[in-house]
Amino acid sequence: MEWRRRWHITIRWDRAENLPTGVTLVERVVDSPAELRRLVEAARADPHVVAFPYSRVRQLVGDEPERCRTGHSFVGGSATRPVRDWWPFSRRAPGPSLPHLPGRPAT
What's the rounded Cα separation, in Å, for the pair 28 and 10? Predict the structure, then answer.
């Protein structure tokens, strides 16, 4: 299991007639800074684009580990499950992601 960086970008146009798809909002997810750069440059070059906010997000990918680094098993009920070496993240808008702390509500 590892963290993967991705970027979410939302491109807004002034009118739906200015796009072949007939919509004013397009949301994309890209995996590299180069892909994000291409979308931002294209949005800047289009006079009908009115906004293109983007944000970086982190996602855990891969199989969930069955053992910790020292070999203890993660198998068992919630009362016997040890704390993992990573924290789950929740997304709140606007602003950066903050860690979700056990025993506190997610923000």
Answer: 6
pLDDT digit string (tens) for 7-47? Answer: 999 999 998 887 778 888 989 999 999 999 999 999 999 99
DSSP E strands, the chain: 2-13, 25-30, 49-51, 54-61, 89-90, 98-99
> How does the average pLDDT of the chain come out, rounded?
77
- Residue 46's alpha-carbon distances to 9, 13, 15, 32, in angstroms, are 15, 9, 13, 22
pLDDT recorded at residue 63? 79
- Phi then psi dihedrals of residue 106, to 5 deg: -70, 145
Contacts of 4 (CB under 8 A, 6+ apart): 31, 58, 59, 60, 61
